[in-house]
Amino acid sequence: MEIKKFQGAIEAILFSSGDPVSIDRIADALDLDKSTVAKMLQNLMDEFNREEAGVQIVKLEDHYQMCSNPQYAEYVRRILDMRRNTPLSQAGMEVLAIVAYNQPVTKAFVEQVRGVDCSGVLGSLTAKGLIEERGRLELPGRPLLYGTTPNFLRCLNISSLSELPPLEKSRQEENAAEKMADVSAG
């Protein structure tokens, strides 16, 4: 198959899926190596992701998805008669940030950081597709581990977790670092 036909096949896969598709699955479907598929995906992204284009291809870690251009969201909402999503609560935002910056994490870890029960919030974030179960920790009781999803990246309009803003050092950490520097200097 020539390159244009492979790129057409990739377009068809992304369009028909509706969800993020991993580069591994695309490479398997086309019997090609990942680096070749990655180059083709980059070519497609260059072609589709023009400012005025209605459809874009977004990269979410090692997954790709075809989606509408965010600048046309209001028109899409009107035609699909969609209501605005309800915003996340303060508790939801806190739990999501804890999971995003520390993943994979257990419910106990999240509760230790927040100081309150987080069962309902974790369930709500899972139902919204922002976090998912990532296996179990090899400790007594085998607690569930949680991590963010490609949908989380899409909602934040970032392609990888490395694009999250860096955490600010707490005042306590800064004071401890200054004391260590003073002790080692003098």
Describe the structure.
This protein is an alpha+beta fold. Helix content is 53%, strand content 15%. The protein has 9 helices and 6 strands; from the N terminus they run αβααββααβααββαα. The strands form 2 sheets. A 3-stranded antiparallel β-sheet has the order 1-3-2, sandwiched between helices. It has a 3-stranded antiparallel β-sheet with strand order 4-6-5. β5 and β6 form a beta hairpin. α2 (23-30) crosses α3. The longest helix has 15 residues, at 3-17. It is globular, with a radius of gyration of 21 Å. The model has no long low-confidence stretch (mean pLDDT 87).
By DSSP (H or I, 4+ residues per run), the number of helices equals 9
Structural class: alpha+beta
| Separation of the first and last Cα atoms | 70 Å
Could you tell me the radius of gyration in angstroms? 21 Å
Spatial order of the strands forming the largest sheet: 1-3-2
Helical content class = 40-55%
The best one-word shape is globular
What is the helix/strand order? HEHHEEHHEHHEEHH
Total number of strands: 6
